[in-house]
Design goal:
By secondary structure, this protein is mainly beta. The chain contains five helices and 29 strands. It folds into two domains: 300 residues, no CATH class; 96 residues. Strands 9, 10, 11, 12, 13 and 14 form a six-stranded antiparallel beta sheet that branches. A six-stranded antiparallel beta sheet has the order 16-15-17-18-19-20. Strands 1-24-23-22-21 form a five-stranded mixed beta sheet. It is globular.
Length: 435
Amino acid sequence: MKARSIYSSILALAIAVASVIYVVAGRETSNDKGSQSLYLISGEVLDNLIRADSPVRFHKLHENGLVNLGDLPITGDRAFIRPYHDYGLVLFGSNLGAGEGVHLDIIDMRSVWEPRSLYYPLCDNCGVSVSGMHFLAREDKTLQILFNSSMQSDLDLETGLRRRVFQTMNLSTGEVKDSHRGDQRYVASYGMAGARATGTGDSTTLVRNHFDGTNEAVVARDMPLGWDVPAWFVENPLESIMRVIENQSIRVLTSAGFSRAGDPGTSRYYFYNKLDDNWHIHAFDGNGSWAIRGFGEWVVTEEVHRIPDTEVPEARAEFHARWRSGVSDNEYLDATSRFLHFEVRPTGRLLIYNVFERKEFVIETGEPDSEVLLVENNQVYYRVDDSIYREEIDLRREQLTNTTLLVSAPEVRHMHWAFLGPPPPEKWEPPLFKD
């Protein structure tokens, strides 16, 4: 299909009324007997509240139980975990601060048992923000990381801004180069894990607008996007524009004002279908705009509502009281404390949306501490408190079927990432990352 002007497309744009299919989480049990194994990562879930002894652990589902494959080498409050299912990679590591560099580890989902480690050096006066690191999927299949460094020694006294330095690191060779201006168009974003897990968000602020009517093209001033921003954002200059998902199949944008401009109690997003080159709007139930992430043509989120402003002081006081008293679940805060911290009330309704078909599926779990972990091969894997389930997605019949309980265990409560990969070699023994 030939590309059309995005502005003329937007004029004719109507909010799509998607089919919504409901299912109540079931309790049928079964062993996992597929040719691929399910791998799960558990970790801390509160930004800026990291405990030094909070490990990030790697697990494999085995029959109806879990095998601990060891702790991932992640330390400090600048850790990040980012799975890119479209490209078969899990990137994780630690930003050790100015002058210390970034340790990056890579798990290839197709060869789980051969992890690789890379190191990105920084000069003594340089820093790099976790939020400024973006995975690049170039057309030549060269996989790179884009680091957005701030030179602390190069401060503009008039503007108060530091000169930004863009570089890339080849994930195969570790080679670091100055970034080409066009590299921004290759940025991939999977979104954010459920429960707002630390260091996982990789959304990009494209344009930051200010209330005095001026705007700052945060990305475009340094690197052109290579595509047009939808007209709604251009025509509403008080709204900052965020790209929350970008993969081989779809692109998803939003802003605080746009998200809340629809029906009360919903959150709106702009979806771009790369297959047929068109944009549409879809609104999810819940005004909390919780975690949203993409798996190919699928987008998943949870219905979450913000605590009313009048109740926020009480919620904050309760959270800090729980934090000071050490309320936790092993090494991690419990779900109640997590929700108080983010000032939200999850409903336990999981929302699964197919961008190509414009169909939404809803799983009613009845448990606020629930999240979708993975959608692959028309199967959805999701966590309900301390249990993980799998269901089949039948797009033609518009229904979810074959609810299967895969595992129940206390450590499941802190699992927020999952992927499928080959089973381990016969003679392999944990841990995956050796000292």
